[in-house]
Amino acid sequence: MSGTDFGALDAVGLNLQAVFDLDDLPDHLRDRLLNTTDSPPGLRQLILIGNAGPTLWRSVCASDIDSNDPIDAFSVREANRWLDQHCPGHTQHRLYPGHAPVDLQQLGQLAGWHHASPFKLGIQPGWGTWFAYRVALLADTALPGTAPRHTTSPCLGCIDSPCVRSCPAGAMADGNFALDACIDYRQRPDSRCADTCVARLHCPVGEANRYDTAQIRHVYSNSLRMIARYRATAEQRSPEA
Predict the structure, then answer these.
(1) Are strands 16-21 and 45-52 parallel, antiparallel or unpaired?
(2) Pick from 163, 152, 92, 159: nearest CA to 125
(3) For 191-237, how does the pLDDT look when each residue is reduced to its tens digit (9 = 90+)?
(4) Domain ranges across the chain
């Protein structure tokens, strides 16, 4: 326990929190976070906030948020409210959501939230893959640091790999994850993964904490639109186009 009151964040579903002292981070990670952003001086800590399970989406739907990215907008708003309440007067610099080069999975590994899964989403005991990183920020706070969780990957005890077997794209058939195969299949007119991930749904870990169907559809529909825009832009830039 860190001794910090995260109750307000827990209540809205932002129920994963980690506080790192920057001096305790690996040198290369600390330098990248500080030197590649327009961060103000005096920043001492990194605060990482995530959600696990369906509560965050339900909170977003019940809120007055009006945004093209309602999950991001809501998460940032609630993180700011929490900081204003518990750390008034302190300076913060938000890294994510944003354009800073933040390796969220590396931070998740440091927090003990992230183990690799065959389909490249993070997985952890209890929650399975039904968690995500929502806010990462630097601050001049002096909060108690959080101890990392020490867990074993649920995938190590998996016998028949239902995610691999169920993937309609066969994206993990050779023991690695073939991103192009996944993307190509998702863009097919008859794709079963246009607004979901069949492999993810077949993973039994954390099944009781699965996102609501509406959230899954929202997330994967957005990602499919991003894929389409990226590929269209790439084709326009191609010298053979």
Answers:
(1) antiparallel
(2) 152
(3) 999 999 999 999 999 999 999 999 999 999 999 999 988 777 766 66
(4) 7-139, 154-237
pLDDT tens digits, one per residue of 54-96 = 999 999 999 989 888 999 999 999 999 999 999 888 888 999 9
Alpha carbon distances (Å) from 117 to 54, 162, 177: 20, 12, 10
Q: Specify the amino acid at residue 222.
A: N
* Sequential DSSP letters for 153-194: -GGGG-SS-HHHHH-TT-TTTTSS--HHHHHHHHTSTT-S-S
Distance CA 206, CA 202 (A): 11
How many other C-beta atoms can be found within 10 angstroms of the C-beta atom of residue 74?
A: 24
Residue pair 202/192 in contact by the 8 Å Cβ criterion: no
